[in-house]
Structures are given as C-alpha cells and as structure tokens.
Amino acid sequence: MLAVFSLLLLVAIGGIGAFALLQNERAAFASLEATAAAQFANDDALVLIVDEETGMRGYAEVGNISFLAPYQAASERETAVFSALALRVAYFGSRDLDALVHDMRATHQRWKREVAEPVIARRARANIKDEEFKGKFYVDRTRADSAALDAALQALYGRAEDRAGRGFARVAAATFLALVVATALIFALGVRQYRLREERDRDRRTVDVLQRAFINRTQTLPNTTVASVYLSATREAAVGGDLFDVRERGDGGGLIAIGDVAGKGIEAALDTIHIRDALGSLAEALDDPGEILQRFNAQYTVAVRRRDTFTSAILILVDLQRLRARYANAGHASAWLLRAARARPLAVTGPILGVMQDARFTTESIELMPDDVLVLATDGLTEGLDPTRQGDGLETAARWIEEASTTDPQTVVDSLIAKLRAIAGSEIGDDLAILAIRFDGAPAR
C-alpha cells in the first residue's frame, strides 16, 4: 500500500510539475510571439515613413509628380500601419510604450502638415531650404521614437527568453522525479523557440533585402555591360551605408555613382537613400558633376553636423553618344579605369562630403574607348585586402583588377570577390559594394 501511495504521490508531483512547466512555457511563448509581432509592426511603420520622406524629397528637388507615387502609396497605408503598431504594443499594457507609438505617429503627422504638404502644394519645383530644419527635427524625433521602441521591445524579448529558462529550472528542480515529462517539454520548448527565432530572423532578413534593393539599383545603359555585387558584413537584418546607382538621365546620357556613408544600421541606410535620390535629382537639373557635389555638400553638411557623419562618393556623368565621361570625386579612392589591361585610378577632386560646408569639387574628363571598364568599389574591398592597414590596399586592388585579364565586368567582379575571400575567409570585416561598367562603343546614329 505504501509503495502504491508513493507511486501515486510521485505521479501527482510529476503531473503538477509538468502542468506548471506547460503553463510557464505557454506564457513565455505568448510574450515572445507578441514581442516579435510588435517589432515587425515597428519595422513596417519605419519603412512607410521612409517611403513618404523619400517621395516628398524627390518631388521637391525635381518637381516631377511621378516622385510622389511612393509618398501617396505610403499615405494610403498610414492609418492601417500605425493602428496595427498601436494594437501590437497595447498587448504589453505599458504606458511608456504606448506613449512612444503615439508620439511617433503624432510627430510624423506634424511633419506631413507642416513640411510635406506645404511643399507639395506649391505644384512646382520647391526650394526646401526653409523647411529643412523644421523637417529634420520632426524626422529625427520620429526615428528616435522608433529606435527607442525597438530597444524596449528587444529588452522585453530578452526577458521573455530568460523567463522561459528560469521557469523551467525552478519547476524541474521541484519535479525531478518527472524526468521523462520534463525532458519531453525541454525538447518541445527548444524546437518552438528555434522555429520562432528562425521565423523572426527570416522576416528581418527579408526587410533587409528589400531595403538594400531599394538603396542599390542599376539600370541598363545603352551600349554598356554592367555587373555589381553587395556583401554585408553582418548576418543580422541590419542595413548599412554602402550605395551605388546606375541610371539613364533625361538627356539620354548616363549617371554612375558609388558612395560609402560612415556608420551602419538604419541611420546609415536612411542617409544612403537621401544621398542617392538627392544626387540623382540634382543631376537632372545640372550638367557639371563638381557643381552637383558642391550643392549637395552645402546642404548635407548642415543636416549631419550633429550626428558626426560623413560620406565619400564619386559621381560620373557619361555622354553615351560621344563616349565621354566627366566625374567629380569626393574622397573616394577606390575607383579605377581599366584600359588595355592597366587599371588607372580616378583622381580625387575634392574632400569627403559632410565635413566642410564651403568645400569645392573640380570636374575631370575622360575620353572613353570601346572596351574601357570602370571599376568602382567601397572601402570594404581595400580594407579586406589589407586588414592590418600596413600596406597599400589600393595598389593591391588595382593589380588584381589587371590580373583578371578580361574586360568582362562580371568576371572582374567575381575575380575580386574570390581573391578577397581567399584572404578574409567567409566573413568580411566591412560591407562591400563593387560596380563594374564596360563601354561597348557609341550607339549607331
């Protein structure tokens, strides 16, 4: 009888322990899932804000109503996106989190009323200088709210994970006799947590890929062959500050640009969007690369003064009819012209952007020839070739470009990546973008 009673007692203790563990696991995963959903909603709201800002800026610079398409599309989704974010955050019952969402939405609406809508209402190319400081205040505040919300949610996610671990430890200690049940629950807990993390990381990588595709784009230029690659130094769904752009201009020519913004993450990614669109807009109105960089730098220096941010970039305007290129180079040394198996560096013609408001940039000209290849890269290439920075990564890169022994842009890019990985291994130390463009000859007239 005692043996039966002991057995029943052990079964009862094991059952109670298993039930407590199950309840703890359910509560912990409910919190994990709610936190992940709130983070996704916050990402969606930030992408929407970026779309509206970019559309308004493009319209203000160029005066072309087609730039308003992303602004209008984002505005139509604004109520639904912010309502979804507020609902997800309300789950936690935190006044502080609710206040961040409310302030984020209210500040963005003030930006629309006081900056975006007045600029758009002018129905002509707008000078946004008067709205620049007011708009920057609202934009910075909105991003700060989003960053603070993301940090708070990340902390909640970490606490929920800790709760799951501690809860199991306490219950397992009290129910050691129910070893089989506890082992099964540990396995179930691990599987569910792994799947949740995989889903969360996959969704964040998707956001990363979409944002990077929006930042770095190439169009096909007549009588050219273009190849490009972008490698991220991080596995997380973080975006970085490397950008490149190839597009046709309104006069039938081409624009080629590559740049490297100091910093990483959302701030650097947002800077790349504004830089790319601002340079593209100025290039539609102006024909001199040096003047384009000079005008952009004057405004950019004011905008980033408090964030200690700077950018290197090279901007090239190509006359595809005459095979003539003009460029201005703002401290971006990783640029070469490959001709007859020799890689010649493109001279720096001015300082980096964002440091001196009154900086001047000169314009250089190149008479292109068929089979000439422009090879442009960010500093992830030269730093990867010389990680100790004791040698000359620029000379090594030029030699490797020549050793590719081809004018095929994709082969040149692939050769550089292969040699870089032979030195750095599978992990690179910095984000890397490489752009190669071959000029196949002037189009038929």
Sum up the structure in keywords.
alpha+beta, six-stranded mixed β-sheet, 2 domains, five-stranded antiparallel β-sheet, 445 residues, Phosphatase 2c, domain 1
What does this protein look like?
- By secondary structure, the chain is an alpha+beta fold.
- It folds into two domains: 2-211; 217-439, PPM-type phosphatase domain (Phosphatase 2c, domain 1, 4-Layer Sandwich).
- It has ten helices and eleven strands.
- The protein has helices at residues 2-62, 68-90, 95-121, 129-174, 179-215, 265-285, 289-304, 379-385, 393-403, 409-424, and strands spanning 217-218, 224-231, 240-248, 254-264, 311-319, 324-330, 335-339, 342-345, 364-367, 372-377, 432-439.
Which helices and strands, and how do they pair?
Elements: H1 2-62, H2 68-90, H3 95-121, H4 129-174, H5 179-215, E1 217-218, E2 224-231, E3 240-248, E4 254-264, H6 265-285, H7 289-304, E5 311-319, E6 324-330, E7 335-339, E8 342-345, E9 364-367, E10 372-377, H8 379-385, H9 393-403, H10 409-424, E11 432-439
Parallel strand pairs: 1-3
Antiparallel strand pairs: 2-11, 3-4, 4-5, 5-6, 6-9, 7-8, 7-10, 10-11
Helix pairs in contact: 1-2, 1-3, 1-4, 1-5, 1-6, 2-3, 3-4, 5-6, 6-7, 8-9
Summarize the structure.
By secondary structure, the chain is α+β, with helices and mostly antiparallel strands. The protein has helices at 2-62, 68-90, 95-121, 129-174, 179-215, 265-285, 289-304, 379-385, 393-403, 409-424; strands at 217-218, 224-231, 240-248, 254-264, 311-319, 324-330, 335-339, 342-345, 364-367, 372-377, 432-439.
